[in-house]
Amino acid sequence: MKQQGYRFGMRQPATHVQLGFKLPQPVDLAALDQWIRDALEYDIQSYQPQFIGDKPSGRPAEKFLVRWLCVTTILLQDIRVPVFERAAIVSLKGDRKQPGHFVADIWFPVVEHFPAKLFHAWLAIANQFIVDVLAHKDDPAALEKLYQAFQQSQVLPWSAQIPGARSTIPILQAAFESGVPFAHCGFGRYVLGWGSGSRFFDRSSNMLDSAIGSVATQQKHIALQMMRSSGIPVPSGSVFKSGHPLTVAELTSLRAPWVVKPVDRDRGEGVTMGVATEEALQSAVANASRLSKQFLVEEQIEGNCHRILVIDGQVMYAVKRHPKAVVGDGVQSIAALVDQLNAAIGKKIPIKRLPDYCLDELALTCLKSAGLTPDSVLGAGEKAYLRPAQSTQWGGDPEEVTDHLHPYNAALAIRAARLFGLSCAGVDFISTDIALPWHQNGAVINEVNYSPVMGRTHSFQRKAARAYMASLFPTQGKIPIDVFIGKASRQSAKHRWQRLIDDGKRYIFCDEDGLLAPDGQPLRLAGAQSAYEKIAMLRTDASLDGLVIHAASAERLAANGQPFEYASVHFKGHP
Asked: What's the predicted TM-score (pTM) here?
């Protein structure tokens, strides 16, 4: 299976694959669709492949093939491979020698600098997974055993080989949906856009973010001092070296209760809240010291933590982070509600599961403080919190409160992001009521997060990611690419290129002889052999205004696919 370029109007490169498969008998498509919704969190109606050659027939084998391609795409995304384009189906034929067997001729989307075997392997893995799921769909225990085996034998080993972070996927999906081209440059770094319209990305951060600011935000004590020196309200606190035998007597200048945290961890790792006694302090210090060479002790500020996402100097959303909770229905006990929620989580494949709802010692303590037990029956809509705070480790329930955010608080978050030179920042704001200005209720900024996780679960997250793309790429990150086809069009192509150069534009000319720089001299690129490779390398040239390309024939241009997903095409010298 050889990797190819862009074809058939597909917006990701594609590779040609022939798939041989046996149609499961009986094939319960309704059950398969329900499983895709419950276990993979996807509506099959959203996956519409392109049919090239043969028209859709509606045969069971074709419907199964579409679901197979859809599941493959979802699973690849789950292991951090950014495949979003739908496959193109050329043909589907029955095998005359083996009844019930079929051969599909398809083009499947791929990603640059990922091995071709990855996509071939996952097409086979997904097929077998679907067959196994259908065989065990009526046996929850067997299905869970299958899920765990799949997680251990496929998801985790493959995921360990894939570069980059899961938080990159929402950014690239937003780029794809916004029409912004992207390509993998290796090691989980991506370039979005072309030439002068391009930006390098690592997770949600981009090349415009300040290196000094990004480093400072990853050292909590440094970030707090920078904000304190700039008049931004922050919690009072002190830094200690790990291993320091800290006692309550040393914290008399700080009001209890305290929060103890490592200085350089995120996602709530090593954080202990509500510390007020000698015993609790020693436990919290040990917890933080295991993860960092230094730890921070801060006054615990009254109120909820709110995440304010700032992009390009504007607030995209504000979210109130509620601790994990159950919501009453007036009938079931808290314990029964927990079982119900965990059953819904258990329907998903493991990589898509959020943390379970637990009735452990910490949950019982939270319930006791509210005068509740696991046997208590909550009124309809009444909440019972099972954790003291939201965290990545424990999970939580986000509530969008953008419309309630006071302008003073929005301005403060924007100021904090600007202080660190971040075009995209997650500002953690602690307040009892974000509808009140920070200077009236003692609200503070707790942290400023570089490269914040944006997610794609909630509509406000997806909307913000698309706004991020619109802000950075007002023209979708595209530069003009003019393609002239036909031997007679070469002179027209050269004239077009020369006119653009005369207008002061930095255009590069490409034909079968190579590349010409704007000064008319040959442009050499290390490691590039074919015209395809040379053109693909130019997408990262931030000084490039556009390309003029000449191809002797459409057949030659299409032989290996194009290295770009869009172009203006001219034939035989006539624009």
From this structure: 0.91
